[in-house]
Fold:
Amino acid sequence: PFMSPEEFISRIMEAEPPEIYLMEDLKKPFTQASMMMSLTNLADKELVLMISWAKKIPGFVELSLADQIHLLKCCWLEILMLGLMWRSVDHPGKLIFSPDFKLSREEGQCVEGIMEIFDMLLAATSRFRELKLQREEYVCLKAMILLNSNLCTNSPQTTEELESRNKLLHLLDSVIDALVWAISKLGLSTQQQTLRLGHLTMLLSHIRHVSNKGMDHLSTMKKKNVVLVYNLLLEMLDANTSSSSNQTAAS
Ligand SMILES: Cc1cc(O)cc2c1CC(c1ccc(O)cc1)=C2c1ccccc1
Structure:
C-alpha cells in the first residue's frame, strides 16, 4: 500500500468535518413540514462539507470523476446517518442531529412513518455504544461506506473505468488495513480483534438498510413538496466537478 495504516488514519482523522449548528429558532412542537425542513436545511449544510471531506480521503480524487460522483450519490445518506449515530452515541434515546437540534423518538411522531426509522437509528447507535466504538474506528467505517458503496453496480468497460476500479479496490485495502490497525490498538487478543472487525463491518449492512428506509421515506416526503435534497446534492456535485474540471455541461 502506498501509505501506512497509521498515516492513513491520521489523514482521515484530520479530514473530519467540523460540527454544524442548525442555527434556526426551532419552534416546538414540530409540525411535519417544520421537522422535515430543519432536517433538509441541516443535511444541505452537511452535504457541502461531505464533498470536501471525501476529497481529503487519500486517493479519492485520483479516482475517475464519474466514480467520485457515483460513490457520493450512492452513500450520502448512509454517511449522514453514521455521523448522526456517532454524535448520538453518548445520549441514549436521543438523536443528536446537531448540538442545537436534538430529537427524542417521541418527537418522530409528528412526521408520518419516521419514528420507525428513528428507532432503527437508535438501535444501531446503542450497538455502537455497546461496542464502545472509537473515533479512529468510526472514521474508518465512514471511509469504508464511501468506498464500498458502488462496487455492486455496472462492471467497468473502458480502460479508465478499469483503472479507476483498480484504484478503488486498493483504496479499500488501505481502509481495511487502517481499521485493523485501529482495532489492534485496543489491547484485545487476536481472536477478540477478529471478532470486533466482524461486528463492526456487520453493522455496515444495518446502516445500508436504515439508509434505504430513509431514502424511501424521504421520497415519500418529497411527494409532499419538501425541498429536494437530490437536486441540492446533484447541484453541489456539478458545482464541485465544474470547479475541478472545465468539462462542458452535458446538455
Ligand atoms: C429518518 C429520516 C427520514 C427522512 O425522510 C429523511 C431523513 C431522515 C434522517 C435524515 C438525516 C438528516 C441529516 C443527518 O445528519 C442525518 C440524517 C434525513 C434527511 C432529511 C432531509 C434531507 C436529507 C436527509
